[in-house]
Write a structure and sequence with these properties.
Blueprint (H helix, E strand, L loop, with lengths): L2 E4 H17 L3 H13 L3 H20 L9 E9 L2 E4 L4 H13 L11 E2 L6 E2 L7 E7 L4 E8 L1 H4 L3 E5 L5 H11 L8 E8 L2 H11 L6 H7 L4 H14 L14 E9 L6 E8 L5 E6 L27 E4 L5 H4 L7 E10 L2 H13 L11 E3 L24 H11 L3 E4 L5 H10 L2 E4 L5 H5 L2 E8 L8 E15 L6 H22 L1
Parallel strand pairs: 1-3, 2-6, 9-10, 13-14, 14-15, 15-16, 16-17
Antiparallel strand pairs: 2-7, 4-5, 7-12, 8-11, 9-11, 14-19, 17-19, 18-19
Length: 508
């Protein structure tokens, strides 16, 4: 029987799904994260997971984005062969109109992150379109849609290889995961695609991330296929790497591992890894010709009540009176609460700063003795002074770090995940500091911001330089003035602890 699906229903369903996933984690993900929190023995990792869970509940209550990076939209669309679409524009345009309306919703503005001319002007399209759309024409009389919003930090950690047929997928994955660092905001999920061609393996890995978190059920019943065997083996071995939440070292690096495969050429074994971050966002709906398919809000009882048990031991810092000598007393792994005025700046701002310094031009703001936060916030709504404002991946600023520190007198930086060796050397040489805020806790962080104004490069939009007034903003010393990196020492310590625990259990 033929089904007629209206253009307006397609647009409304996409819009509703994207708004929904911007502030609601899937329940299976929350349950898995809470289980990881209860198991975690590393204080730093446990606090990071606590912040993620607290942030998630706040977003569910306040209907504001889980992460300031509200993602690039990917749609998997299965169109039934007996469907007639009643509309005036192509299906692709309908789907993109749903994206446009979702991201420009005045009640919950979502950050537009999509840039046209990616190797040239890199101009923001302004409405987060176009989406990445994958179609299948299938038997049936419905339109089935999976919607995902994927953060750039986790997408940047994607890995691909064309292995030899005899090569071990497990060995390759265990080699790649440490190279991914913490910029994908673990703990999360890894989607792994095996087979087909290069682009098919990537697509399989992305599709795998749409599946529910069910690794514990799989372990309990046992594997029935090679892909399930891989899931169980990799879940165990990746977590034994000790990378932990936010890369600080701990028991849980992945909440689940998904594997999809496809027949391939006899000479090839294509393998792709795509991680999903702590801001896991996806939803599913089916259009049956009877109106829009809207999401059903979950119960707030699905979210655990979590408090940051260790926050009382954090040291309060006055950024307006900070001195180089005080910075030198901080040690890797210390937790701080920042107060005072904090500048912001990320990729585009750093490039412009370095270009201006090279030309001898005066910067719009004096950076001497200041701290800069790598962030591109969401626009505020209602009474907010700023929207969700979590950190972006710090390694992207590594190539600018030495120049900015040495030519401006910058005293400290705040960002997400680890720093590379180039940046660590610059930090050590100049006895400054790098602090880490938790990725995936953007709304929680924004509540520590009591004032915000643009003080430079206002033409860059969300990448402009802001001056934030912050009150008790939680951070961890990730690289201290001696160059000691928590992202190097933490995983090493916890990998050894996990190995020792495993050996003890085996001996017993």
């Amino acid at each position: 029987m033929t089904t007629v699906v209206k253009q307006a229903d397609i647009i409304a369903s996409v819009r509703d799904a994207l708004q929904y996933i911007s502030y609601y984690h899937p329940k299976d993900f929350i349950d898995a994260m809470h289980d990881a929190y209860k198991r975690e023995e590393s204080e730093a990792a446990k606090d990071a997971i606590a912040q993620i869970l607290i942030n998630s509940r706040m977003c569910a209550e306040g209907h504001r984005p889980i992460c300031q990076d509200t993602g690039i939209v990917t749609l998997f669309v299965n169109v039934g062969m007996q469907v007639v679409i009643d509309g005036e524009i192509p299906l692709e345009d309908m789907l993109n109109e749903g994206v446009r309306q979702a991201y420009q919703d005045s009640d919950n503005v979502l950050r537009a992150s999509i840039l046209a001319d990616p190797d040239g002007a890199r101009k923001n399209t302004g409405d987060n379109t176009p989406a990445i759309i994958h179609y299948k024409v299938v038997p049936g009389n419905t339109i089935d849609v999976h919607v995902a919003a994927k953060g750039g930090g986790s997408e940047a950690k994607t890995k691909f290889a064309m292995l030899n047929p005899s090569d071990s997928v497990v060995d390759w994955v265990l080699k790649m995961v440490p190279q991914m660092g913490a910029g994908w905001c673990p703990p999360g999920m890894l989607g792994i695609g095996i087979g087909g061609t290069a682009e098919k393996a990537m697509l399989l890995a992305k599709e795998a991330l749409l599946e529910p978190v069910d690794i514990q059920e799989l372990i309990a019943r046992g594997a029935n296929s090679r892909t399930e065997e891989l899931r169980i083996e990799l879940y165990d071995k990746v977590n034994k790497l000790g990378i932990g939440a936010q890369g600080l070292g701990g028991l849980t690096t992945v909440l689940d591992i998904k594997v999809k495969d496809y027949p391939t050429h006899a000479a090839n074994k294509a393998v792709a890894i795509i991680p999903n971050c702590a801001a896991t966002r996806h939803a599913h709906f089916t259009l049956k010709g009877d109106g829009p398919a809207l999401q059903t809000p979950p119960s707030l009882e699905d979210w655990p009540e979590i408090t940051r048990a260790g926050s009382g031991s954090s040291k309060r810092v006055n950024l307006d009176a900070i001195t180089p000598d005080e910075v030198k007393t901080w040690k890797s792994g210390d937790t701080l609460l920042l107060n005072g005025k904090l500048l912001t700046g990320r990729d585009a701002a750093h490039k412009r700063i370095v270009d201006m310094l090279a030309k001898g031009e005066t910067l719009p703001v004096d950076l001497k003795g200041r701290f800069i936060y790598y962030v591109g916030p969401v626009d505020p709504v209602r009474e907010e002074v700023v929207g969700p404002a979590g950190p972006t991946t710090a390694t992207r600023m590594d190539k600018f770090t030495r120049t900015v520190i040495e030519q401006t007198g910058l005293l400290g930086m705040v960002g997400k995940a680890e720093r590379g060796d180039t940046a660590i050397e610059a930090i050590k040489d100049n006895q400054v500091v790098y602090l880490m805020a938790v990725g995936g806790a953007a709304y929680l962080v924004s509540k520590a911001i009591t004032g915000a104004k643009v003080v430079g490069f206002d033409d860059l939009g969300m990448e402009a330089i802001y001056e934030f007034d912050v009150k008790d903003m939680p951070v961890t010393v990730a690289v201290d003035s001696t160059g000691d990196s928590a992202h190097k020492t933490g995983p090493q310590i916890w990998q050894a602890k996990i190995a020792e625990q495993t050996l003890t259990l085996t001996d017993a």
